[in-house]
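Renewal narrative, Specific Aim 1. Our central claim is that a sequence can be written position by position from structural information alone. The example that follows is taken directly from our test logs and has not been curated for this report. It begins with the structure tokens describing the chain, in the order in which they were read.
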């Protein structure tokens, strides 16, 4: 995937990783970058700086996603790359009980982290299959390959996001459809209460054992991953080793995660 001349949609595009992706895709010469976000005013203001288009869309609303996709296809004739990037953190954290998060939180995370990817694929696949080409970049998380201590809803839905990306790649790879899934650890965005103007390289922070990456650094990894058509894009290279450790001895890995939880002083006795 070379981005020059491509029509690209990015959900969650007005802030954080999504914003950095939009900026980088524009810099790479994309024909049009479409900024999709729940914050419509921010999306429109930002899109104007990169000669892009903007749509205010709640990604939990399948009809809204379908209408946006249809409009973009009508205007530009195709969608080359759909980046399903919107995400949230727990609305009511759950550090002490795996079941502490409310049903509202579970539903919101399921809709945003899983069903929004399904909705995007359902809307884009007919046009992509007709052309025999198209690309999906779905943002999940390292938590979707490993786990995030103290947030069962986030970890579970991010696992499901990876699973759907696998199914998309398996089912439609022979149809010319490419799929990548982005799985970073901590990134300097509002989700970790960090500034979004961090440097281009890794910056220090307590939100991640292996450091907090800037959104710009994540975007760099994405462009390289798309060029190589990698299924897994891992901005934190340590994640690949952790994944290998988990696969080699699942029980030992779980034990190590319990130890880390104890180190974080999260007690079930709260």
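The sequence written for that structure reads:
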């Amino acid at each position: 995937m070379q981005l020059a001349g491509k029509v690209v949609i990015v959900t969650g595009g007005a802030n954080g990783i999504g914003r950095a992706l939009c900026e980088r895709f524009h810099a790479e010469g994309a024909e049009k970058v479409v900024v999709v976000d729940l914050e419509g005013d921010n999306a429109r203001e930002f899109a104007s700086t990169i000669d892009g288009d903007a749509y205010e869309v709640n990604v939990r609303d399948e009809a809204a996603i379908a209408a946006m996709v249809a409009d973009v296809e009508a205007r530009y004739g195709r969608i080359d790359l759909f980046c399903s990037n919107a995400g949230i953190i727990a609305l009511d954290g759950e550090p002490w009980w795996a079941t502490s998060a409310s049903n509202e939180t579970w539903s919101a995370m399921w809709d945003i982290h899983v069903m929004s990817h399904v909705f995007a694929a359902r809307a884009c696949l007919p046009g992509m299959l007709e052309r025999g080409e198209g690309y999906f970049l779905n943002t999940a998380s390292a938590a979707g390959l490993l786990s995030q201590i103290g947030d069962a809803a986030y970890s579970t839905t991010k696992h499901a996001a990876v699973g759907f990306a696998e199914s998309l790649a398996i089912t439609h790879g022979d149809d010319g459809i490419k799929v990548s899934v982005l799985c970073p650890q901590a990134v300097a965005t509002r989700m970790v209460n960090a500034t979004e103007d961090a440097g281009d390289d890794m910056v220090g922070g307590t939100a991640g054992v292996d450091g907090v990456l800037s959104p710009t650094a994540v975007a760099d990894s994405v462009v390289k991953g798309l060029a190589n058509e990698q299924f897994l894009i891992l901005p934190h290279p340590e994640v690949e080793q952790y994944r290998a450790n988990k696969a080699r001895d699942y029980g030992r890995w779980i034990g190590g995660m319990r130890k880390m939880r104890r180190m974080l002083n999260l007690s079930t006795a709260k």
